[in-house]
Write a structure and sequence with these properties.
Blueprint (H helix, E strand, L loop, with lengths): L1 H29 L10 E7 L3 H17 L3 E7 L3 H13 L6 E3 L3 H6 L3 E2 L16 H7 E2 L2 E2 L2 E6 L2 E5 H6 L10 H6 L1 H4 L20 H9 L17 H16 L13 H11 L5 E4 L4 H13 L6 E4 L12 E10 L6 H14 L2 H11 L12 H9 L5 H8 L2 E2 L8 H14 L5 H20 L1
Parallel strand pairs: 1-2, 1-3, 11-12
Antiparallel strand pairs: 3-11, 4-11, 5-6, 7-11, 8-9, 8-10
Length: 450
């Protein structure tokens, strides 16, 4: 009996001891006095987005901060992308850079080793293969994802499909700029109930549409070695001279220029909406206002049927329009911790998820950066009531090329823009205008190559 009693007492002590230790551990873990709560890592984020773009981004930031506690994104709105560049240069000098930037001249900073490769910090949830082809190409340097695309834009064609049908044409007949010009005889003069088609097409004022056409014709801004300006090459001259003929001699196309602010843009759009032109070349950001305007015009009795198609090629060449994209990038500076860089990449992954890039595209009209949005039920539902809203995305994926980064800081593009104005507005020969522009731009390029 003594032995049994001793064993029983021993077991009671052991059981009581284990229970006490377990309770002590649980109690200790739950006791505020002994618990250390780790503060979230702060991610300072600079951007210059305002209006609908800014609203869309703010919503994403708020959602991100509400759905996890490891990081907190704190946005800082800068007035413009050029101002971001200026402030960022000063921040690098003072070792006070933000953890994340949207926009700015990431190429300039990356060339100086001041950008941390996004791929070094991106979470496994970031699906690189799902990024739209053009965006992926623009963001990749030496085989590595240097930055991460946020959204993008590339000029597309807005077309009156009702007029096309009446002329016995379809959107497939918009296969080249020459084919568009060639249908002028069957398009111009068609009745649109309250007006008549006066022009087969209206390019948007500025050098942008000319750049897209010329790129399809094989044109380059500068030579591969970066030393010679090429904007007066035969590829450029052929395109701009033909546009001059269409505008001034054949008078089958038209340019609206000048005015206050965006006045020229809306005049160009209105000609298409109210039956004066078959179509115009514009931004994906026009989509919502353009669709609403066409529906209103139809209700007022105008003949129009809304359609958007990708840009055509020049002659028999494939389309090759330029596209611009806003990029997220993580600065490389000693004041940033590895946790901050990881947090920046984590937020970018969230912001550019299939759901969020689709929401952003729907809200703004700009192109989503993931191909998977095309399979998203909510995006499919959006497309059902918003025809052709995915054209810019598909164009960037299949045809578009990254925009030219002017090594002179803008001198080449400015010279080209001035030459295009002389041709489109003043009817100067393309060769004369482009030769003068090339001389002016070459001087600036030579300065940076010394």
């Amino acid at each position: 009996m003594k032995r049994l009693l001793t064993i029983a007492l021993t077991l009671m002590v052991l059981i009581t001891g284990c229970g006490t230790n377990a309770n002590t551990q649980v109690g200790t873990a739950a006791t505020p006095e002994t618990t250390t709560t780790k503060a979230p890592v702060e991610i300072e984020f600079w951007h210059a987005l305002g209006g609908a773009l800014g609203d869309g981004l703010n919503e994403i930031i708020e959602d991100y901060n509400a759905t996890q506690t490891q990081y907190v994104v704190k946005p800082v709105v800068i007035g413009s992308y050029s101002e971001i560049d200026e402030k960022l240069q000063a921040a690098y000098a003072a070792d006070q850079v933000p953890a994340l930037v949207a926009g700015g001249s990431f190429n300039l900073f990356a060339s100086k080793g001041l950008v941390s490769p996004f791929e070094d910090y991106m979470p496994s949830a970031y699906d690189k293969a799902d990024i739209v082809g053009g965006f992926l190409k623009a963001a990749t340097v030496d085989g590595k994802l240097m930055v991460a695309p946020a959204y993008g834009t590339s000029q597309v064609l807005y077309v009156n499909k009702a007029v096309l049908k009446e002329a016995g044409k379809t959107v497939d007949d918009l296969s080249s700029w020459q084919s568009i010009a060639g249908m002028s005889s069957s398009i111009i003069g068609l009745d649109t109930h309250k007006d008549k088609i006066g022009y087969v097409w209206e390019p948007m004022w500025g050098s942008g549409n000319i750049e897209d056409m010329a790129r399809s014709n094989g044109a380059q801004f500068i030579s591969e070695d970066g030393k010679t300006v090429m904007i007066n090459s035969p590829e450029w001259v052929a395109v701009l001279e033909q546009v001059r003929v269409w505008l001034h001699e054949d008078q089958i196309m038209k340019i609206h220029s000048g005015g206050q602010g965006w006045e020229y843009w809306y005049k160009t759009m209105d000609d298409w909406v109210y039956g004066k032109s078959l179509g115009y070349t514009g931004s994906p950001g026009d989509y919502a206002i353009a669709l609403e305007a066409v529906n209103k015009a139809i209700s007022e009795g105008y003949k129009n049927e809304f359609a958007v198609v990708h840009q055509p090629g020049w002659g028999s060449n494939d389309p090759a329009p330029y596209f611009s994209s806003l990029m997220y990038f993580i600065p490389n500076d000693s004041n940033l911790t590895e946790d901050q860089k990881k947090g920046a990449a984590d937020f970018v992954t969230f912001a550019t998820s299939t759901d969020n890039t689709a929401k952003f595209a729907i809200a703004t009209g700009y192109a989503a950066v993931r191909k998977s949005v095309l399979d998203l039920p909510s995006y499919k539902a959006y497309l059902a009531s918003n025809p052709d809203a995915d054209v810019a995305l598909k164009q960037i994926d299949l045809y578009a090329v990254p925009e030219f980064i002017d090594p002179t800081g803008g001198a080449i593009l400015t010279a080209l823009s001035e030459a295009v104005d002389k041709v489109e507005i003043e009817n100067m020969s393309a060769q004369e205008a482009l030769d003068a522009a090339a001389v002016k731009a070459q001087k600036e390029l030579d300065k940076i190559n010394k």
